[in-house]
Specification:
Number of domains: 3
Distance between the termini: 45 Å
Strand order of the largest sheet: 3-2-1-4-5-7-6
Radius of gyration: 28 Å
Mean pLDDT: 80
Helix content: 40-55%
Structural class: alpha/beta
Amino acid sequence: MKEFAVLDELCLGGSNAVGDGLKPGAPRWSPKVAVDIIGMLDVLAVILSSIVTFFILDSAGVKAEGGDFFAIQSTLIAAGIMRFMLIRGNMYDQSSIGSFSVNPIGLCAAFAAGIFVVISIFLAFGMVQPFHISWFTLWYVISISFLILLRATARIQLKRWVERGRFRSNLAVYGGGFIARKLHDHLINQGDGIHFLGVFDDRQDESRLDTFGLKMSGRLDDLIEAGRNGSIDQIIIALPQSADRRINDIVQRLEQLPVHIHVCTHIASDLVDAALRGNKVSAIGPIGLLNVKRKPLSDWGPLLKKIEDYFFGGLIMLASLPLFVLVAIAIKATSKGPVFFVQKRHGLNHKIINVYKFRTMRTMENGAEVRQASKNDSRVTSVGWFLRRTSLDELPQVFNVLKGEMSLVGPRPHAVVHNQEYSEGLERYSNRHQVKPGITGWAQVNGFRGETRDHNQMKMRVMHDLHYINHWSIWFDLKIIFMTPIFGLISRNAY
């Protein structure tokens, strides 16, 4: 609809646009990752300054009692204490990343605390001699110099990235009214690193809706489309509390999107300073919020997932090259047709991708009708039966992983026609598309793979997929990867 064009205008221009050419759906970076990296560099600066100090004093003939071991112990203890003090001193504040703190006094105090702890420990063991004064003094001066230089450089670069909108979180509001206007005005004046993207509402009748001067960007379907395009990071539902049933319905429809979802509530406004703030209650300026859904794979998640996929995917590809050749020869020798079968399936955010498999059937269905393989299926070739039973037919999907379309671990992708069928019959089925599909998954290692004879079997598969999405961690992925050869490759349901 024409109102949806407002999104492009808001993202590419206007008084609070992202600006500098950052288009809707362009990668936006996590402030947490940025400040965590700076924290690692702070520790690295202390370690580097220790090495420089050691070599300077060593060349001058001044050696610390305990030698290298003393230097390593001192470095690790002081760096850990300094990091703790900087965290406590709020010097890794994500909300003010555009004016990231250098604070030389804070750095001096934090590292001085680290030095003090080191001296105290070694004094207790009678290890500190007078000549160590030169060691600690020079180390302190070099460390502080490195830290100030590092943070000053980081401040300049972070400000540049903030101005380009790299850390800005795009926020949309469902429900036109006073709350939407209040949020808009707060973000225009304060920013908070959040870009107000637009207001959506299905009530388009002016007699039922007072927008308080804000132009409507579209309806709920337009909001879902924008979320699938990667244009939105957070959605706030700003409806009256009396509309609890409607709020619940809207939340269920929005759950399929990989975004943070909040519900505006007066209760949250009363509790923003209470202990619940760290739980499921938060606030943006004067607006209290209940956090009903977290974005999956946020902050470090996407980067760790990508490293995992490329590392293990590359290893599997290299190790499987001889197997690829053998399987290809067997397929060509026993049946007519190509080695690979390419089928369209839904990927992240319902995007259509071409999924690769070894051909196991005499027919290659990829249209409006795709019949699942069943027991004693005449379409399955003799080699295909073995490939399907051992899941070797899925091996070419490593190509999809290395192309960035799939992950090693995630919900299994289904044929487009099956996707449409199950999304209509199963509640929350579409929520599986919040992450990339996987070659293996939590459902598969628990026995839910192969033919699904009824909706109950698919329901169990979906429950396991959603459990995986809601509880994702790199350790959970590794657990599934190592379980797959034992529990996920051979199945009685794979025909």
